[in-house]
Amino acid sequence: MNPQTLFYIIIAIIIIDFIVDKILDTLNAKHFDDPVPQELNDVYDKEEYEKSQRYKKERFRFGIFTSTFSVLLTLGFIIFDGFAWVNDIARNFTDNAILVALIFFGIIMIGSDILTTPFSWYSTFVIEEKYGFNKTTKKTFFLDKIKGWLMMAVLGGGILALIVWFYQFAGNDFWWYAWILVAVFSVFLNMFYAKLIVPLFNKQSPLEEGSLRTKIETYAKSVGFTLDNIFIIDGSKRSTKANAYFSGFGKEKRITLFDTLVKDLEEEEIVAVLAHEVGHYKKNHIIVNLAASILTTGFTLWLLSLFVGSPVLSQALGVEEPSFHIGLIAFGILYSPISEITGLLMNYLSRKFEYQADNYAKKTYGAAPLISSLKKLTKNSLSNLTPHKAYVFMHFSHPTLLQRFRNLKRS
Ligand SMILES: [Zn+2]
User: Fold this and answer.
1) 204-206 and 230-233: which strand pairing?
2) Residues 267, 212: contact at Cβ < 8 Å?
3) 276 is in an annotated binding site
4) pLDDT the model gives residue 139
5) CA 102 to ligand 1 centroid distance, Å
6) Crossing angle for the helix pair 97-122 and 46-79, nearest 10 degrees?
7) Does the annotation count 45 as an active-site position?
8) What angle do CA 149, 150, 153 make, to 5 degrees?
9) 366-402, pLDDT tens digit by residue?
10) Active-site pick, 128, 264, 269, 358
């Protein structure tokens, strides 16, 4: 294939991907004003529902604006040989392939982050602020950015450097080495995420003494889960929105509850959410997800190894001298339709797992407190009660509130 054809394929993929995404967004938005399902009409009162309608419409418009900006930026960058330009800058510093790749991706990442910062600023300090969600201070906003960059430089940079090095000595067999590296790293990160990464951004503390702790203790004992593994995190530092999640495995397993969740829900509802998280653990969802992601990575790296050496990838992006990092960019775009499909499968699996965790909570604790907690969490985040089927199928990692309600009510 000649570089010109590949160039057009790359442009076409970006445009088609954008259009499909916008069609789904618009389809979803067309159903914002659908009648609320009977089972859910106690979630909002009239005034709150109108507020949620304004919120989702504003989010929708903002999403169209930001994604249009970013797709135009990407297309412009490709059409005007932006990657070749950044490649030249990196090559002016050094001839070392590893350093060139690091400088190249450093410029791309930081450049695109700076260009999109006004959007995340607007999202946090204008939209979220207007609806009463925002708790982030300007200081936290910038500290988060800087910490994020440093983390990216250390972890992302380290992995990239090793992969380029593997490519230098192993050629197309690099994918084996890279796969082992990424697999080991994923397992490690999954285990120690809560201990190593979370403390950079948040404070975590064990459950305090009191009636909530007693209730959780009783439940945890009944299903054989250790209380040492339950933590409260200061999510209120950034937003009033509430959450809970399970992470790690083996001795490092833990359930993290947001302080906002503890504040918003009744004690029985908190235990029900916890029971749902214990369900994820008992059903081995973390391990299955991790295994699925490691397999997907192996497949991606293998596919990358088939193409990355081909000069046509670099030439399609206007770079004459083929190199690993330019090949990686071109491959990344060409791979995106496949990653849409794997993402879709992962979402499908995740929704299955949510039902299983809900069923576990229902069986070991009760359906009623979980239903009322889900309704409260939906209300407090002004979530959409009437998402479109196709949108749910593509984007949702959780079933809709209505689906979860019906599943929990089923006897
Ligand atoms: Zn869940």
Assistant:
1) antiparallel
2) yes
3) yes
4) 97
5) 37
6) 150
7) no
8) 85
9) 999 999 999 999 999 999 999 999 999 999 999 999 9
10) 358
Residue 227 binned pLDDT confidence (cut-offs 50, 70, 90) = confident
Q: Which position has the token pair 């002004």?
A: 382
73: tokens are: 């930026």
Please tell me the pTM assigned to this model.
Answer: 0.92
Q: Point out which residues pair with 255 in neighbouring strands.
A: 230, 246
CA 290–ligand 1 middle distance (angstroms):
15
Summarised one tens digit per residue, pLDDT across range 58-113 is: 999 999 999 999 999 999 999 999 999 999 999 999 999 999 999 999 999 999 99
pLDDT at 411 over 90: no
How much is the CA Rg of the chain, to the nearest whole Å? 23
Cβ-contact 244, 133 below 8 angstroms: no
One-letter identity of residue 316: A
Q: Does residue 358 carry a catalytic annotation? A: yes
From ligand 1's centre to the CA of 132, what distance in Å? 25
The average pLDDT across 288-310 equals 95
**Active-site residue, selected from the candidate residues 277, 320, 321, 340:** 277
Q: Which domains, ranges and CATH numbers included, belong to the chain?
A: 3-188+283-409 (no CATH), 204-282 (3.30.2010.10)
